Amino acid sequence: MSLNGLTKMTKIELVVPGEHVPAVRDQFRGAGVTGFTSVSGVSGLGHHGYHQGRLLFNQQAALELLITVVPDTKSEALIAGLRRLLDETPGVMFVTDTYVSRPEYFS
To answer: Most buried pick, 9, 19, 65, 79, via CB within 10 A?
Structure first.
C-alpha cells in the first residue's frame, strides 16, 4: 500500500531508563532492524511523575528515546519481544503506521 508513492511501514518508539537501552538494542538486532535513532536525556510527565532530562550521575540515570522503523512483516515479532521486555522493566512503547520514501533502507 502506498500514500503519494510512499511505502507503509511501522514506527516503534520506546522511552526507557538508560540502563535498559542495551536490552532494547538487542531486541532490535534480533529482529533484523537496519537502524534506529536514540535520543538521550528525554524529559516529560508520565505514570511515575515528572522526569527531568538532565543526567544525574551517568548516562544510565536518564531516560532515553529509541525510534525505529521496520517493514510491517518484521513488526509483529519485534513488538512481541519488546512487550515481554517491558513486562520486566520500566518504560513505554508507542507503535504507529508510518510511510517512508526509501523502503530499501529498511530491509
So the answer is: 9
pLDDT under 70: residue ranges of the chain:
1-2, 51-61
Is-contact 5 99, C-beta < 8 A? Answer: no
| Tens-digit pLDDT profile for residues 53-77 | 655 555 556 889 999 999 999 999 9
* Total structural domains within the chain: 1
Report field, pTM of the whole predicted structure over 0.85? yes
d(CA 68, CA 21): 13
Backbone angles phi and psi of 52, in degrees to 5:
-85, 150
CATH number, domain containing residue 50: 3.30.70.120
Residue 69 pairs with which residues in a beta bridge?
11
